[in-house]
Each structure stands twice: as structure tokens, then as C-alpha cells.
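User: These chains co-purify. Model them together.
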Amino acid sequence: MERPFAHLSVSARILVFLCLILLVSGVRQPARAQTTAEEYQVKGAFIFHFAQLVDWPAGALNSGSNSINLCIFDDEPGRQELQSTIEGKQVGARAIHVHLLSATQELQGCNILFLSRDESRRQTAILRGLRGIPVLMVGETSNFLSEGGMIRFHLVEGKIRFDINLGAADSSHLKISSRLLLLATSVTYGSDVGQGR
Amino acid sequence: MRIRDISIRTNLALLILSASALAVVLASFGFAIYERQSYRASSVRELTALADTLGANTAASLAFNDQSTAKEMLGALKTEPHVLAACLYDNQGRIFVEYRNSSGPSKLVLPTRQPDGADFDHDSLALFRGVLLNGERTGTIALIFDLSDFRFRLFEYAKIAVLVLVLSVLITFLASSRLAGSIADPLIQLAAVAHRISTDKDYSVRAQIRTGGETGLLVDSFNDMLSQIESRERALKEALGSLQESEERYALAARGANDGLWDWNLATNEIYFSPRWNHMLGYATSETWSCPEQWFSHIHADDREQVRAEIAAHCEGKTPEFVSECRMRHKSGGYIWTLSRGIAIRDQSGTALRMAGSQTDITEGKIADPLTHLPNRLYFIDRLESAIETARQQGALFAVLFVDLDQFKMVNDSLGHAAGDELLIDVAGRLRTSIRTGSRLGGPAQSVVARIGGDEFAILLGHIRHDSDASIVASRILERLNEPFQFEGRSMFVSASIGIALSSTGSTAEELLRNADTAMYQAKTNGKARSEFFNEGMRERAVTRFEIETGLRKAIERQQLLVYYQPIISLRDDRIYAFEALIRWNHPERGLILPGEFIPVAEESEIIVLLGRWVLRESCRQMAEWQRSFPSLRPLTISVNVSTRQLSDARLIEDVKSALADSGLNPASLALEMTEGSIMQNAQQTLATLDRLRAMKVGLEIDDFGTGYSSLSYLQRLPFHILKIDRSFIREMAAGNGSLDIVKAILQLAHSLKLEVIAEGVETEQQLCMLRELDCNYVQGYFFSKPVDAVTAEKFFQDASDSGLISPASVMVPAGDFEE
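Assistant: Joint model of the two components:
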């Protein structure tokens, strides 16, 4: 029974990929408008589970505040949904706090950084600037992983799935649980991002 | 067949078997339950571990909503054949992913999400566990586990249990039959022995069972018990034997002792009397009595209450034994004397339950006079009463003879009591033989000789045809007594006076005996040594005598007695020499009574002593008074009669002394008169008394000389100074029948003994002349004066005082009144 689905799934992936390109190039707005609220709630939940399955190196997390800081730029479209979903959630002994950023220089103190599709212009600079720093970078753009991001959301058959760049995580000394890796649609080991190293 | 009827052996085996079977079954059940519980617990444990592993693996899938990965994870359950299905639920309870075992039931319905925990169905287990992702619950996993395998295992266990049960029952059966046998066999044997003993009554049998423990103890105890029973049985038999022996011995002794036995059960009021008891009362041994009232009805009416009281007293514990003497009616109608003795058997509270004892015929000892062995007065009265009863019914005639010895007191006093006893024994024998030979018609039952007093005998003559039969017997008795009695080689002569009362003269025994006594008294009065029939006149005289006797006692107290005085004339100077004091009774109804009427009655009792004393004092007082009143006259003498009883009374001397002292009379002015008979009654003592009186200067005179029989030797020895010739000789002097010669002889004798003589009863001048010629000293009689009272007598003194001499001629009193 799964074979036809798997066959379909491959063709569906191609279709979704084409669609995404189209969306990014011109028809972003309607698509974005359609998915925003529900989509970012799910993504918020995903980010929370990521925080559960990722280990930060010693000293990376602020020992005084007992919190894990999720940084989102304040002009992000789904920031409110994200914030409402994730704010205050406990990960072990720590609670997740959402920080709304206005400038790049404010990245200091972030433990998780979510970059939406709208941040593609600043994406490269931000990713480059944070290379080697233990900040879990989660994004949505297609080149997010190749530019040094660690986890990228994408849609499969209408369902939100994710890919993982294990090399970027390694270089930032973040340890990603095998269980998270198991669930990733694809895991790259950073050969295409070797430039950064 | 009920359990209790089954033999002990089967019972024990059944008990052991059922106990062991029950134990195995219970153990199997317990084991099965435990096994089930532990199987379930281990299943839950295994399943929990499995669920946790799966949960850990699928937690992230749930978190990231990745069903395909989760499906792959659950697919790993293929290696667990007992997991029928698995299911993942999201936090909203919706089924996220499911898994079904291809070998399991195809139509398995997946359960809806349940709270965490195990949920047992009858052959499946559903376990719900939370799925946690780093402590955050992302969903629930459910595993359905197949428990049907356990049923198979349980079946296997059951097979083993049945096998064990069969084996254990077999083993316990073998073991228990041996065990039950070791317990039951000795008991069964013991029971058999006990049964045999109870049927054979052979206590020498012993249980021969060798066993230990409590059963052995039981057998030993059983045998010990048998030994005890056997020895006790033996002892009992011996005791019974000796008891029988002693009973026989006692019965023999009782028969030998002639005792009747009685045994009274107070509870049932039944009484047993031995054959001898019946025989004693004249009943045949076959006449059996069983009621105590029969006993009481045979007791003499006068004794019955006494016997009842004595029985009651003993029953109440007041007396240590019951002893009673009573008269019992013999079948023949008479009474026998019996002595009954008995002891009561009591219960613990002291209540008498039974009384037993003996009865002895003591008639012989009771009625017999120990000296003569004749029946006593009591028995005589008893027999007399039966004779009266018989006579009343048959109209028969019988007589009562009262026999009194005339000289018994003399024999007793002169020869001693031994002689008296010998005499009584001899008389008794003679009386017995007189009756026996005389009563051919009637046997001893009709005639009885009894001793009823000192020298008094009574004879019952039964069944006489005529009065003369009684007088014939009386004559024969007198005849027999005429033969002399021998005592210590001496011959004695005694006579008896017999009174005869015929049965027609009285209606009671006492009356008849009294009548016979009265007749005997009459015979004595009539001269002794004779018999008299009782008649009504005698009774009247007897009554008169009784009246006199009682009247005399009052007469002394009421001063109805008087002294009369008769002068005694001295023939020397024809003047009054003395007065004789003579007693008179001034009876309030009958007037003046002469002493002849009451002195004999008084002499039969002590009254004569009182009378004599009174006369003595009164006479002395009177004479002393006269002597004081007429001092110029010659002192006269007063003569006072002394009776036989007075003479033997020890107080006579004292009486005389006090009479003289109180009156102031000169002893020489007093003379005491006594008869020869009264002197002879107790000559030795009288002689001493007379000597003392004589020493006091009191004159002594022999009265009625010539009538009694006197001993001339005594006459010589006795200190008399005057002798009085009895009036019978004086009266007959002129008749020419020898009385004159006697008077003459007496006077000669007296004078030769230096005694003066008084002639009594001088009534004519002829007698006086003859006496003068015979040289008689003094005379007394109606010729001169009858006895006169003191006032008349005093006239003699006054006349004499006037004339200077006392002469009877001056007071010639016409004769006519009778002198004593």
C-alpha cells in the first residue's frame, strides 16, 4: 500500500518544491496569507520540541536567568503566533522566553533564532555572523541550510516537516538528539557549506 | 449407614483421606490463584517495559506528528507474538497510529484511550502508558496482550495437581490404614474383651494387647480396673458369705434367747415381725403382720401411749435407744409383759428411716415375786381382771382368797428375817400345792396364787361351781399350814386367817381383793386361824372403821376427846385408892362413843399412839390439879392404859417424863396399865422400857391378867407392882365353873410374888364379898361407880373433903351403862 504513496510522495515533493519557488518569486503573499496562523502555531510547537532534543554546550545557556531565549525579529509575520505558543514553556528546568529583535546587533543572548521566509535578505549576514556560536538557527528558506542554518521547515503533503544540517550544528557545538535526526526528512553533513569552515 | 455406625478404623481412614485430599485441592487452588496473579503481574511488568520502550521511541514521532515513523516503530512488535495489537493516541485521545498482529484475531476492536494502567479482560490485557518526550507527555500508548496462553498453562497445572492428588490419596490411604489400624485395633480388641466380660461376668479375663502410648495406657488401666473389680467381687462374695453366716448366727441366738425380732420401715410404714415374735403372742408363724397398728392394737390400752411416746422420743433423737416395757395381749386373751428394745437408722439429717429391734417376754420376771417366785400383786390384778371379764361373759363363778399369816411378825421379830423369808417360801409352796390338788377342774390359767404383800397372799380360784368349793380350798390351806415349819432344826407353828370374796360380791379386781381382805380381817377378829366369807355387813363395818379412823384424826385436833374416870377402891379401908383413866369420844353427830368401838381401829394405825399420849397428858394434868385442889386428901393414883404400839414406841419414856413434868404430878401417883399380850409382842424391848419406868417410880400394872398367854418366868422378872384380874373371871366366880379357883390361884400367885391385885368388873355385892374373903387388895366396877367425867369425879373429892374420906358409897351410881 505504501508504494504508490511513496511514489506519489516523490512526485509531490517535486511539485511542492516547484510551488515553493513560485511562491518565493512572486506569489508569496496569498500563500503566506493562507497559512500564517495555524502554520506558526505548529512551528512554535516544533521549535519547543527542538529545544527539548538539542543540547547546548556548557556555558552557552545563560546560567543566571534559567531560561532559553528564542529570538525572533519583531517584524516577522508569524511572531505573535509563535510567541503565544512557545512563551514560558518548560524545557527541563528552563523556561523558553521569546525575544523580539529589532537589529542584528541584538543577537547577543539568543539561544534559538528563528528566521522566517521574510528574512531572506538579512539571512546570509546573520548566518555568517553566528557561525560557530552555539545558537540553534531555525529557518524556512530553501537555502537556509546551505548558508549555515541548522534546521529548516518545509511542507510535505501539507504537513510541516524539517531538514537538519548536522555539520552546522557540530561546528556550533550543538548536539542534536538522534531521535530528532530520525524524524528529519533529510540530514546533511555540511559538505556544501564547507566554505564557511 | 451413619458415620457413627461405621467402625472406628474406617472412620479414621476416611478422616485422614478426606483431610489430605482437601489439603491437596486447597493447595492447588491457592497455587493456581497465586500463579494467575504472578502471571498477570509479570505480564504487566513485561508489557510496561515494552510500552515504555515503544513510548520512548515514538514520543518524538508524536511530538512532530510523524505517523509513518511511529508506524515503523510499532512494526517492531512483530517479534512479540503475544502482543495482539498496539495503538498510539495523541494528547487529544485520537488514534495516531495503530498496529495489529497478523496472527491475532482480525476483528480485534481497538479500545478507546483509557487512563494509564492495566485493564484485564477475560483473556487479554490492555495496558495504557503515557508517552513522554523529555518528561513532556506527547500521547498515550496502548498494548493489547494475549493472556490465553495462561489458560493453557493453568490446564497444565491442573493436570499435575490431579496427578498429585491421586498420588497423595494413594499414599495417605496406605499410611492411614496402617495408622488407623494402630489406633483402632487395640480399641476394637478392648471392646471385644469388655463385651465378653459383660456377657460372661468373668472378671478374670484380661485384655492381651501389646501397644504403647495412650492406647497402651488405656489397656493397662482397663486391666487394672478389671483386677479391682475382680478383687472387689471376691471381697463382696466373702462379705456376703460372712454376713449370711452372722445373720444365721444372730437368728440362732435370737431363737435361743427366745427374742422376737421386728424391723419397721418408717418410710413405707411396713413392719416385719419374726416368727418368734408372733409365737410370743400366741399367733401361728403363718399369721404375718405388716402394719405397725397391729402391734399397737395388741398393746395394753394403759401402756399404748407410753410406747408411742418412747418411739417418738427415740425417733427425734432424744433417747439413745428405744426401750419400753409394756403389756401385750396374748391371743388367749391375757396379757404378757414384754420388753421391747430398738435402734433407729437415720439419714444424714438425723431423720429416722428405719427402726429395728427385739422383743422379750419378761412376764416371768415382771410378775414374779423374787422371793417366793409367785406372781406379784400387779399380775394378780391383771389375771383377776381377765377372770372378771370371762365371768361376765360366761356367767361363771370364781373366788378370791386373801391369806394372811397370823404370827409372821412374831417369827420375823423373834427369829430374824431369814426365818421369815424361809417361812414365806414354805407357805408359798404349800399354797401352790393346795390349789393344784384342789382345782382339778381348772388349770393354772384359771387359778393363781400370788404374793401381794409382806405376809399376804392372794388366791384366785377360777371356775368354782359353788361357794363350798372355795371353803374347801380354804380348809385345805389351813390344814396344810397346821403342819409345823422347820427352820434350823426348830419346829414352828403358824396359822393363817383367810378371807374369801366370791366373784358376785364385786365388779372390779380391786374391789374383790379389798373384800377378801375385809373378810380376812374379820377372820382375824373372829379369832384367827380360820376363814370367813365376805358379806355386806363386813363391808359396812369396814366402812365404819374407815370413818372412825379419819374421824379420830380430826377428833384430836378438834378436842372432841374426853377422859372419863372410874374409881378403884381399896378393900383395906373401903376408900378410893385410884382412878383409871378411860377415853371417850364426844362425836358431834353420834354423841359419846365408847372406846370399844374406836380403840381397835386406832390400834391398827399410829393413831393409837397419839390417843395414848393425849390421854396420858390429860390424866396427869387432871390428877395433879385435883391433888393441888384438895391438898388435905391422901394423894390418889391415876392409872393410864398403854397400848401395844405405844409400848414399842421409842418415845414412850419421853412422853411420860414430859406429862409428869408439865403437870407437876408425882411419878408415884402415875400407874401404867398394859396387857400381857402387848408385853409379849416385844418382850426384850418392853422389859427395858418397863425397867426405866419403874426406876422413875412410875407404877406398872398388868391389865386383863389371865386372858392372854403369859410366861410366868417373865412375870417374876417384870417390874410390876399390881396385877389386874380380867373381868371375865370375876363375872364367872359364882357360876361354879372353876373361875373362882382361877381367881384364887391368881391371888395366891400374885401375893407370893409380892404383887397387889385389882379385881375388875365387880358388879354385885356377892362378888365383892367373895373378893374380900380371898384377900383381894382393890376392886373396880359398876358396883361402886361407872366411869364418870371429870366434873362428876371431882365431886368425890369434894365429898371426901367434906367427910374426910373418899368413899364410893357416897356416890353410888346405878349400873346400866356399859363398861369397856
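Residues 28-53 of chain A form the longest helix (26 residues).
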